[in-house]
Design a protein that fits this description.
- It is a single chain.
- The chain has about 425 residues and is an alpha/beta fold.
- The chain folds into three domains: about 80 residues; about 55 residues; about 250 residues, no CATH class.
- It has 16 helices and eight strands.
- An eight-stranded mixed sheet has the order 1-8-2-3-4-5-6-7.
- Helix 1 packs antiparallel against helix 3, helix 2 packs antiparallel against helix 3 and helix 10 runs antiparallel to helix 15.
Length: about 425
Protein backbone atom coordinates (compact mmCIF):
# COMPACT_ATOMS: atom_id res chain seq x y z
CA UNK A 1 0.00 0.00 0.00
CA UNK A 2 2.88 2.36 0.76
CA UNK A 3 4.25 1.80 -2.73
CA UNK A 4 0.82 2.45 -4.26
CA UNK A 5 0.49 5.73 -2.36
CA UNK A 6 4.01 6.70 -3.37
CA UNK A 7 3.26 6.04 -7.02
CA UNK A 8 -0.01 7.99 -6.75
CA UNK A 9 1.90 10.90 -5.23
CA UNK A 10 4.31 10.98 -8.18
CA UNK A 11 1.42 10.80 -10.64
CA UNK A 12 -0.41 13.68 -8.96
CA UNK A 13 2.79 15.70 -8.88
CA UNK A 14 3.28 15.24 -12.62
CA UNK A 15 -0.37 16.14 -13.28
CA UNK A 16 0.00 19.26 -11.13
CA UNK A 17 2.99 20.38 -13.16
CA UNK A 18 1.11 19.88 -16.43
CA UNK A 19 -1.94 21.75 -15.13
CA UNK A 20 0.27 24.62 -13.99
CA UNK A 21 1.68 24.87 -17.50
CA UNK A 22 -1.83 25.55 -18.80
CA UNK A 23 -1.78 28.94 -17.04
CA UNK A 24 0.64 30.21 -19.67
CA UNK A 25 -0.98 28.43 -22.60
CA UNK A 26 -1.07 30.38 -25.86
CA UNK A 27 -4.87 30.46 -25.91
CA UNK A 28 -5.07 32.19 -22.53
CA UNK A 29 -2.37 34.70 -23.42
CA UNK A 30 -4.20 35.54 -26.67
CA UNK A 31 -7.55 35.82 -24.87
CA UNK A 32 -6.04 38.28 -22.38
CA UNK A 33 -5.94 40.90 -25.16
CA UNK A 34 -9.73 40.76 -25.60
CA UNK A 35 -10.86 39.75 -22.10
CA UNK A 36 -8.20 40.54 -19.49
CA UNK A 37 -10.51 39.83 -16.55
CA UNK A 38 -11.63 36.48 -17.93
CA UNK A 39 -8.08 35.45 -18.70
CA UNK A 40 -7.02 36.41 -15.18
CA UNK A 41 -9.85 34.34 -13.67
CA UNK A 42 -8.85 31.35 -15.81
CA UNK A 43 -5.21 31.64 -14.78
CA UNK A 44 -6.17 31.93 -11.11
CA UNK A 45 -8.39 28.84 -11.33
CA UNK A 46 -5.65 26.85 -13.06
CA UNK A 47 -3.01 27.88 -10.53
CA UNK A 48 -5.37 27.05 -7.65
CA UNK A 49 -6.04 23.61 -9.12
CA UNK A 50 -2.31 22.99 -9.44
CA UNK A 51 -0.79 24.51 -6.30
CA UNK A 52 -3.68 25.91 -4.26
CA UNK A 53 -4.67 24.77 -0.72
CA UNK A 54 -6.71 21.92 -2.19
CA UNK A 55 -4.69 21.54 -5.39
CA UNK A 56 -2.88 18.62 -6.91
CA UNK A 57 0.51 19.58 -5.45
CA UNK A 58 -0.87 19.58 -1.91
CA UNK A 59 -2.58 16.23 -2.44
CA UNK A 60 0.64 14.81 -3.84
CA UNK A 61 2.58 16.03 -0.79
CA UNK A 62 0.03 14.54 1.61
CA UNK A 63 0.12 11.19 -0.17
CA UNK A 64 3.92 11.18 -0.12
CA UNK A 65 3.84 11.89 3.62
CA UNK A 66 1.28 9.16 4.25
CA UNK A 67 3.39 6.74 2.19
CA UNK A 68 6.48 7.52 4.26
CA UNK A 69 4.54 7.19 7.54
CA UNK A 70 3.06 3.85 6.52
CA UNK A 71 6.49 2.61 5.48
CA UNK A 72 7.85 3.67 8.88
CA UNK A 73 5.01 1.90 10.72
CA UNK A 74 5.58 -1.31 8.75
CA UNK A 75 9.32 -1.09 9.39
CA UNK A 76 8.71 -0.61 13.11
CA UNK A 77 6.45 -3.67 13.22
CA UNK A 78 9.06 -5.70 11.36
CA UNK A 79 11.80 -4.57 13.71
CA UNK A 80 9.76 -5.62 16.74
CA UNK A 81 8.14 -8.80 15.45
CA UNK A 82 11.15 -10.25 13.63
CA UNK A 83 13.75 -9.63 16.34
CA UNK A 84 15.64 -12.91 17.00
CA UNK A 85 14.67 -12.99 20.66
CA UNK A 86 15.89 -16.51 21.50
CA UNK A 87 19.50 -16.06 20.32
CA UNK A 88 19.57 -12.66 22.00
CA UNK A 89 18.31 -14.02 25.32
CA UNK A 90 20.68 -17.00 25.11
CA UNK A 91 23.66 -14.65 24.76
CA UNK A 92 22.43 -12.43 27.59
CA UNK A 93 22.09 -15.44 29.91
CA UNK A 94 25.53 -16.65 28.89
CA UNK A 95 27.09 -13.25 29.65
CA UNK A 96 25.29 -12.99 33.00
CA UNK A 97 26.44 -16.44 34.01
CA UNK A 98 29.95 -16.00 32.63
CA UNK A 99 31.64 -15.16 35.96
CA UNK A 100 30.27 -18.37 37.48
CA UNK A 101 30.81 -20.68 34.48
CA UNK A 102 34.28 -19.28 33.81
CA UNK A 103 35.37 -20.05 37.36
CA UNK A 104 34.46 -23.70 36.83
CA UNK A 105 35.67 -24.25 33.26
CA UNK A 106 37.10 -21.13 31.56
CA UNK A 107 37.68 -22.73 28.15
CA UNK A 108 34.21 -24.23 27.93
CA UNK A 109 32.55 -21.02 29.13
CA UNK A 110 34.42 -18.93 26.55
CA UNK A 111 33.58 -21.37 23.77
CA UNK A 112 29.88 -21.46 24.67
CA UNK A 113 29.66 -17.66 24.88
CA UNK A 114 31.46 -17.23 21.55
CA UNK A 115 29.15 -19.79 19.92
CA UNK A 116 26.06 -17.94 21.14
CA UNK A 117 27.49 -14.61 19.95
CA UNK A 118 28.12 -16.08 16.49
CA UNK A 119 24.60 -17.55 16.45
CA UNK A 120 23.13 -14.14 17.28
CA UNK A 121 25.26 -12.42 14.64
CA UNK A 122 24.10 -15.01 12.09
CA UNK A 123 20.47 -14.38 13.03
CA UNK A 124 20.90 -10.60 12.90
CA UNK A 125 22.03 -10.76 9.26
CA UNK A 126 18.70 -12.24 8.19
CA UNK A 127 16.87 -9.87 10.54
CA UNK A 128 18.50 -6.83 8.98
CA UNK A 129 18.44 -8.07 5.37
CA UNK A 130 15.10 -6.39 4.42
CA UNK A 131 16.57 -3.01 5.34
CA UNK A 132 20.05 -3.49 3.90
CA UNK A 133 19.47 -1.63 0.62
CA UNK A 134 18.05 1.44 2.37
CA UNK A 135 20.90 1.43 4.87
CA UNK A 136 23.51 1.12 2.13
CA UNK A 137 21.93 4.00 0.21
CA UNK A 138 22.22 6.18 3.31
CA UNK A 139 25.37 4.97 5.05
CA UNK A 140 27.76 3.43 2.52
CA UNK A 141 31.07 5.38 2.74
CA UNK A 142 31.52 5.34 -1.05
CA UNK A 143 29.53 8.13 -2.72
CA UNK A 144 29.78 6.33 -6.08
CA UNK A 145 28.21 3.24 -4.51
CA UNK A 146 25.40 5.31 -2.98
CA UNK A 147 24.69 7.00 -6.31
CA UNK A 148 24.57 3.65 -8.08
CA UNK A 149 22.19 2.28 -5.44
CA UNK A 150 19.85 5.28 -5.53
CA UNK A 151 19.83 5.30 -9.35
CA UNK A 152 19.34 1.49 -9.35
CA UNK A 153 22.33 1.03 -11.62
CA UNK A 154 24.22 -2.28 -11.80
CA UNK A 155 26.72 -2.64 -8.98
CA UNK A 156 30.16 -1.45 -10.08
CA UNK A 157 32.15 -0.48 -6.96
CA UNK A 158 32.53 -1.71 -3.39
CA UNK A 159 30.49 0.14 -0.74
CA UNK A 160 33.45 1.21 1.44
CA UNK A 161 36.32 2.43 -0.73
CA UNK A 162 34.55 2.76 -4.08
CA UNK A 163 37.05 0.42 -5.75
CA UNK A 164 35.77 -0.90 -9.10
CA UNK A 165 34.73 -4.50 -8.46
CA UNK A 166 35.77 -5.54 -11.95
CA UNK A 167 39.35 -4.73 -10.92
CA UNK A 168 39.32 -7.35 -8.16
CA UNK A 169 38.19 -10.11 -10.51
CA UNK A 170 41.33 -11.65 -12.05
CA UNK A 171 41.47 -12.33 -15.77
CA UNK A 172 41.68 -16.03 -14.96
CA UNK A 173 38.01 -15.83 -13.91
CA UNK A 174 37.01 -14.38 -17.29
CA UNK A 175 39.26 -15.98 -19.87
CA UNK A 176 38.80 -19.67 -19.06
CA UNK A 177 36.04 -22.14 -18.45
CA UNK A 178 35.46 -25.69 -19.64
CA UNK A 179 33.14 -28.59 -18.92
CA UNK A 180 33.33 -32.34 -18.62
CA UNK A 181 30.45 -34.77 -18.71
CA UNK A 182 29.68 -35.92 -15.18
CA UNK A 183 29.31 -39.53 -14.19
CA UNK A 184 26.31 -38.58 -12.07
CA UNK A 185 23.02 -39.77 -13.54
CA UNK A 186 20.14 -38.15 -11.63
CA UNK A 187 16.93 -40.05 -10.96
CA UNK A 188 14.97 -37.14 -12.44
CA UNK A 189 16.99 -37.10 -15.66
CA UNK A 190 14.50 -39.08 -17.76
CA UNK A 191 11.51 -36.91 -16.87
CA UNK A 192 10.90 -33.22 -17.58
CA UNK A 193 10.49 -30.91 -14.61
CA UNK A 194 6.84 -30.56 -13.67
CA UNK A 195 6.88 -27.13 -12.02
CA UNK A 196 9.07 -24.27 -10.88
CA UNK A 197 9.41 -26.05 -7.55
CA UNK A 198 10.65 -29.25 -9.20
CA UNK A 199 13.23 -27.31 -11.23
CA UNK A 200 14.61 -25.82 -8.02
CA UNK A 201 14.63 -29.30 -6.48
CA UNK A 202 16.83 -30.43 -9.38
CA UNK A 203 19.25 -27.62 -8.54
CA UNK A 204 19.19 -28.72 -4.90
CA UNK A 205 20.17 -32.22 -6.01
CA UNK A 206 23.04 -30.89 -8.14
CA UNK A 207 24.32 -28.75 -5.27
CA UNK A 208 24.82 -31.86 -3.15
CA UNK A 209 27.07 -33.38 -5.85
CA UNK A 210 30.60 -31.97 -6.15
CA UNK A 211 30.89 -33.42 -9.66
CA UNK A 212 27.64 -31.92 -10.98
CA UNK A 213 26.98 -28.21 -11.60
CA UNK A 214 25.02 -27.87 -14.86
CA UNK A 215 22.26 -30.03 -16.31
CA UNK A 216 21.00 -29.69 -19.88
CA UNK A 217 17.61 -31.33 -20.37
CA UNK A 218 16.34 -31.94 -23.90
CA UNK A 219 12.53 -31.98 -23.89
CA UNK A 220 10.75 -33.03 -27.10
CA UNK A 221 7.10 -32.03 -26.91
CA UNK A 222 4.05 -33.33 -28.72
CA UNK A 223 4.70 -30.82 -31.49
CA UNK A 224 8.02 -32.54 -32.22
CA UNK A 225 10.07 -29.48 -31.26
CA UNK A 226 13.10 -29.97 -29.03
CA UNK A 227 13.38 -27.42 -26.23
CA UNK A 228 16.06 -27.23 -23.57
CA UNK A 229 16.00 -26.64 -19.82
CA UNK A 230 19.41 -25.53 -18.56
CA UNK A 231 19.79 -25.96 -14.79
CA UNK A 232 22.53 -23.91 -13.08
CA UNK A 233 23.67 -24.48 -9.51
CA UNK A 234 24.90 -21.75 -7.19
CA UNK A 235 28.09 -20.73 -5.39
CA UNK A 236 29.61 -23.50 -3.29
CA UNK A 237 32.92 -22.16 -1.96
CA UNK A 238 34.12 -18.98 -0.24
CA UNK A 239 37.77 -19.77 -0.91
CA UNK A 240 39.27 -19.80 -4.41
CA UNK A 241 38.81 -23.16 -6.15
CA UNK A 242 39.57 -24.67 -9.58
CA UNK A 243 35.94 -24.16 -10.63
CA UNK A 244 33.85 -21.00 -11.16
CA UNK A 245 31.50 -21.62 -8.23
CA UNK A 246 33.56 -19.71 -5.68
CA UNK A 247 33.32 -16.20 -4.22
CA UNK A 248 35.52 -14.57 -6.86
CA UNK A 249 33.49 -16.24 -9.60
CA UNK A 250 30.27 -14.98 -8.02
CA UNK A 251 31.61 -11.41 -7.84
CA UNK A 252 32.62 -11.67 -11.50
CA UNK A 253 29.10 -12.79 -12.41
CA UNK A 254 27.57 -9.95 -10.41
CA UNK A 255 29.55 -7.19 -12.13
CA UNK A 256 30.13 -8.66 -15.60
CA UNK A 257 28.67 -10.64 -18.45
CA UNK A 258 31.55 -12.82 -19.65
CA UNK A 259 32.88 -15.15 -16.94
CA UNK A 260 34.24 -18.66 -16.73
CA UNK A 261 30.78 -19.85 -15.68
CA UNK A 262 29.06 -18.33 -18.73
CA UNK A 263 31.74 -19.92 -20.93
CA UNK A 264 31.00 -23.25 -19.28
CA UNK A 265 27.30 -22.90 -20.09
CA UNK A 266 28.12 -22.19 -23.73
CA UNK A 267 30.38 -25.24 -23.88
CA UNK A 268 27.75 -27.40 -22.17
CA UNK A 269 25.22 -26.45 -24.87
CA UNK A 270 27.73 -27.26 -27.60
CA UNK A 271 28.61 -30.60 -26.00
CA UNK A 272 24.93 -31.45 -25.59
CA UNK A 273 24.45 -30.67 -29.30
CA UNK A 274 21.91 -27.93 -28.67
CA UNK A 275 21.22 -26.45 -32.16
CA UNK A 276 21.57 -22.76 -32.90
CA UNK A 277 18.34 -20.84 -32.36
CA UNK A 278 16.87 -23.46 -30.01
CA UNK A 279 14.36 -22.37 -27.38
CA UNK A 280 16.02 -22.42 -23.95
CA UNK A 281 14.79 -22.04 -20.39
CA UNK A 282 17.53 -20.98 -17.96
CA UNK A 283 16.95 -21.88 -14.30
CA UNK A 284 19.46 -20.88 -11.63
CA UNK A 285 19.91 -20.51 -7.89
CA UNK A 286 22.18 -17.88 -6.33
CA UNK A 287 25.22 -17.49 -8.61
CA UNK A 288 23.47 -19.71 -11.15
CA UNK A 289 20.63 -17.19 -11.39
CA UNK A 290 23.09 -14.33 -11.90
CA UNK A 291 24.82 -16.29 -14.67
CA UNK A 292 21.43 -16.98 -16.27
CA UNK A 293 20.72 -13.24 -16.40
CA UNK A 294 24.22 -12.47 -17.71
CA UNK A 295 23.58 -14.88 -20.58
CA UNK A 296 20.06 -13.59 -21.18
CA UNK A 297 21.47 -10.07 -21.38
CA UNK A 298 24.21 -10.97 -23.88
CA UNK A 299 23.02 -10.57 -27.51
CA UNK A 300 25.83 -12.85 -28.66
CA UNK A 301 24.18 -15.64 -26.68
CA UNK A 302 20.50 -14.70 -26.42
CA UNK A 303 19.36 -14.29 -30.00
CA UNK A 304 22.53 -15.45 -31.75
CA UNK A 305 23.39 -18.80 -30.14
CA UNK A 306 19.98 -19.69 -28.69
CA UNK A 307 16.71 -17.97 -27.89
CA UNK A 308 16.19 -17.67 -24.15
CA UNK A 309 12.44 -17.86 -23.66
CA UNK A 310 12.46 -17.55 -19.87
CA UNK A 311 14.82 -17.06 -16.95
CA UNK A 312 13.83 -18.41 -13.54
CA UNK A 313 16.18 -17.20 -10.80
CA UNK A 314 15.93 -18.03 -7.10
CA UNK A 315 17.89 -16.22 -4.39
CA UNK A 316 19.81 -14.18 -6.95
CA UNK A 317 20.62 -10.43 -6.85
CA UNK A 318 19.50 -9.60 -10.40
CA UNK A 319 17.24 -6.56 -9.93
CA UNK A 320 19.62 -4.27 -11.84
CA UNK A 321 20.24 -6.72 -14.70
CA UNK A 322 18.25 -6.72 -17.94
CA UNK A 323 17.78 -9.04 -20.90
CA UNK A 324 19.08 -8.42 -24.41
CA UNK A 325 17.02 -5.75 -26.21
CA UNK A 326 14.34 -7.22 -28.45
CA UNK A 327 14.88 -10.75 -27.15
CA UNK A 328 11.42 -11.07 -25.62
CA UNK A 329 12.93 -13.04 -22.74
CA UNK A 330 10.72 -13.26 -19.68
CA UNK A 331 12.25 -13.14 -16.20
CA UNK A 332 10.82 -14.59 -12.98
CA UNK A 333 12.83 -13.81 -9.86
CA UNK A 334 11.98 -15.54 -6.58
CA UNK A 335 13.45 -13.75 -3.58
CA UNK A 336 13.35 -14.25 0.17
CA UNK A 337 13.55 -10.75 1.67
CA UNK A 338 15.40 -12.24 4.67
CA UNK A 339 18.04 -13.73 2.36
CA UNK A 340 20.96 -11.28 2.43
CA UNK A 341 22.26 -12.61 -0.90
CA UNK A 342 19.29 -11.15 -2.79
CA UNK A 343 20.30 -7.66 -1.57
CA UNK A 344 23.97 -7.83 -2.59
CA UNK A 345 23.38 -5.74 -5.71
CA UNK A 346 22.04 -2.92 -3.47
CA UNK A 347 18.91 -2.69 -5.63
CA UNK A 348 15.53 -3.81 -4.37
CA UNK A 349 13.15 -5.30 -6.95
CA UNK A 350 10.23 -3.10 -8.03
CA UNK A 351 7.00 -3.75 -6.15
CA UNK A 352 4.89 -2.02 -8.77
CA UNK A 353 4.78 -2.14 -12.57
CA UNK A 354 5.08 -5.92 -12.44
CA UNK A 355 4.46 -7.73 -15.70
CA UNK A 356 4.71 -11.20 -17.14
CA UNK A 357 7.94 -10.10 -18.83
CA UNK A 358 9.59 -9.11 -15.54
CA UNK A 359 7.98 -10.58 -12.44
CA UNK A 360 9.40 -10.76 -8.92
CA UNK A 361 7.83 -13.05 -6.33
CA UNK A 362 8.81 -11.95 -2.82
CA UNK A 363 8.33 -13.92 0.37
CA UNK A 364 9.62 -13.53 3.90
CA UNK A 365 10.92 -16.54 5.82
CA UNK A 366 13.54 -15.91 8.49
CA UNK A 367 15.25 -19.06 9.70
CA UNK A 368 17.68 -16.92 11.78
CA UNK A 369 20.48 -18.52 9.79
CA UNK A 370 22.26 -17.06 6.76
CA UNK A 371 22.68 -20.39 4.99
CA UNK A 372 19.16 -21.61 5.73
CA UNK A 373 17.60 -18.36 4.47
CA UNK A 374 19.43 -18.87 1.17
CA UNK A 375 18.98 -22.63 0.81
CA UNK A 376 17.53 -23.66 -2.54
CA UNK A 377 15.34 -26.21 -0.77
CA UNK A 378 13.59 -23.35 1.06
CA UNK A 379 13.01 -21.67 -2.29
CA UNK A 380 11.72 -24.91 -3.77
CA UNK A 381 9.20 -25.35 -0.94
CA UNK A 382 8.04 -21.75 -1.24
CA UNK A 383 7.69 -22.07 -5.03
CA UNK A 384 5.10 -24.82 -4.55
CA UNK A 385 2.47 -22.13 -3.93
CA UNK A 386 3.12 -20.74 -7.42
CA UNK A 387 1.67 -23.89 -8.98
CA UNK A 388 -1.88 -22.99 -7.93
CA UNK A 389 -1.84 -19.23 -7.46
CA UNK A 390 -4.71 -17.39 -9.21
CA UNK A 391 -2.42 -14.42 -9.92
CA UNK A 392 -2.97 -13.74 -13.66
CA UNK A 393 0.70 -12.89 -14.17
CA UNK A 394 1.79 -16.23 -12.73
CA UNK A 395 -0.83 -17.99 -14.83
CA UNK A 396 0.81 -16.45 -17.91
CA UNK A 397 4.26 -17.47 -16.65
CA UNK A 398 3.11 -21.07 -16.17
CA UNK A 399 1.60 -21.08 -19.66
CA UNK A 400 4.92 -19.91 -21.10
CA UNK A 401 6.78 -22.63 -19.21
CA UNK A 402 4.43 -25.46 -20.16
CA UNK A 403 6.19 -26.47 -23.43
CA UNK A 404 9.38 -27.05 -21.41
CA UNK A 405 7.56 -29.25 -18.88
CA UNK A 406 5.95 -31.80 -21.17
CA UNK A 407 7.51 -34.42 -23.43
CA UNK A 408 10.19 -37.09 -23.67
CA UNK A 409 13.37 -36.06 -21.90
CA UNK A 410 17.07 -36.83 -21.88
CA UNK A 411 19.51 -35.10 -19.52
CA UNK A 412 23.25 -34.51 -19.64
CA UNK A 413 25.01 -33.40 -16.45
CA UNK A 414 28.29 -31.49 -16.49
CA UNK A 415 31.07 -30.62 -14.10
CA UNK A 416 32.58 -27.17 -14.65
CA UNK A 417 36.18 -25.99 -14.42
CA UNK A 418 38.09 -22.71 -14.54
CA UNK A 419 40.66 -24.06 -16.97
CA UNK A 420 40.95 -26.77 -19.59
CA UNK A 421 40.51 -30.36 -18.49
CA UNK A 422 43.20 -32.70 -19.71
Amino acid sequence: MSSVWGEASLTLGRLGARVAELAIAREIVTNAVFDPAGAARSEAAIVAAAVGPHGLAVLATKLAGDSALLRAVVMKEQLVDDLPVRPLMALEVSLLMLPLTASRDPARAASATAHRAITLADAMIGYGAPFSTSLLELLAPSSRFRLDAVAQRPLSVDPVFGVPLAAVVPSSERSGGSVSISRYSPAWGSQPPTSISSMLSEIGDLETRPEASIAVQRVVGGDGVARYVVVLSGMRHLASTPDPEDLIGAVGALVGVRTNYTTCVREALDTALVPRGAQVLLVGHSQGGIVAMDLAGDPAFNGARVRVSQVVAAGSPISAKSVAPGSGTRVLSIENVNDIVTHLDAVDPPTDHQSVDRLTYLFAVDEHDVVANHDVRLYSRQAEVLADTPNPLMIDVRAGLRPFLEGSTTTTVFAIHDGLVG
